[in-house]
């Protein structure tokens, strides 16, 4: 599998405000257009609210927070180990790793999904913060950084494995080196509908969530089974062990 900046089905769009309309969706309705422009995004939301029952809602080309959380935990455990012997440590570790997996979507607060937060650069920033403050997710500073980076990086990976029909296509995976958007072209996950109260949309979203869990839960289980047991509390009280000569 390779990330692609161009695709026959999904051409690369760099900072495009182009709209996609009239395409069939999983619910058989024309897709609501999406734009990177915050103003257009906000006005679109108002239009959807005003149109009421005539409009199904908005289509999000992304896995749910459940999927992102599971992926973050699996990535973190595979690198930093599992704090399985201490319940409080385990809860804290899982909470932090899941939050790291979901963290990139903070850009939804400013109506700019899939931008710089969905990049390896943002993952590196998260790793630096985690290592600096020794977040209790692994044993040493290097492992903390690596686990946090991997957990954050799962987010743009998962988003690039979901269908995206709204420009700009894909995620800004390699910011700040490039502001191009990338996508794999693989529809591993289903898009999510945001249409509160619409039973058809709710049923569709439930199927999407079940699919995410069916794909990611076995990976989490595998990392639980194979991950080494660690005491992450020690990462906050002791310096990293010196390298073996
Ligand atoms: Zn996202």
Spell out the key features of this protein.
245 residues; mainly alpha; two-stranded antiparallel sheet; binds zinc ion
Q: How are the elements arranged and paired?
A:
Blueprint: H1 38-51, E1 58-60, H2 65-80, H3 87-102, H4 120-132, H5 141-159, E2 192-194, H6 199-226
Antiparallel strand pairs: 1-2
Zinc ion (ZN) binds at residues 62, 104-105, 113, 118, 155, 159.
Beta-strand share of residues: under 5%
State the distance separating the first and last CA atoms.
39 Å
Shape: globular
Residue-averaged pLDDT: 79
Helices, by number, come to 6
Unreliable stretches (pLDDT < 50, length at least 5) are: 6-56
Classify the helix fraction into a percent range. Answer: 40-55%
**Radius of gyration of CA atoms, rounded to a whole number:** 19 Å
> What is the helix/strand order?
HEHHHHEH
The tally of structural domains comes to 1
Q: Assign the structural class, choosing from mainly alpha, mainly beta, alpha/beta, alpha+beta, or little secondary structure.
A: mainly alpha
| Strand adjacency order, main sheet | 1-2
Main beta sheet strand tally, sense and closure? 2 strands, antiparallel
> Strand tally, please?
2
């Amino acid at each position: 599998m390779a990330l692609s900046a161009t695709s026959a089905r999904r051409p690369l769009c760099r900072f495009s405000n182009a709209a996609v309309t009239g395409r069939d969706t999983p619910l058989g309705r024309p897709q609501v257009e999406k734009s990177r422009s915050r103003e257009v995004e906000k006005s679109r939301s108002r239009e959807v609210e005003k149109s009421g029952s005539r409009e199904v809602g908005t289509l999000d080309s992304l896995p749910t927070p459940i999927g992102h959380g599971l992926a973050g935990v699996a990535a973190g455990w595979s690198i930093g180990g599992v704090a399985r012997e201490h319940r409080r440590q385990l809860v804290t570790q899982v909470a932090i790793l899941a939050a790291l997996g979901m963290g990139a979507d903070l850009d939804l607060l400013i109506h700019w999904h899939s931008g710089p937060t969905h990049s390896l650069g943002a993952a590196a920033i998260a790793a630096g913060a985690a290592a600096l403050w020794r977040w209790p997710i692994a044993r040493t500073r290097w492992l903390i950084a690596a686990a946090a980076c991997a957990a954050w990086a799962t987010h743009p990976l998962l988003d690039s494995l979901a269908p995206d029909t709204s420009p700009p296509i894909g995620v800004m995976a390699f910011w700040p080196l490039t502001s191009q958007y990338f996508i794999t072209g693989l529809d591993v996950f289903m898009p999510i509908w945001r249409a509160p109260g619409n039973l058809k949309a709710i049923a569709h979203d439930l199927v999407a969530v079940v699919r995410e869990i069916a794909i990611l839960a076995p990976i989490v289980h595998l990392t639980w089974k194979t991950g080494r047991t660690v005491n992450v509390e020690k990462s906050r009280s002791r310096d990293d062990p010196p390298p073996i000569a």
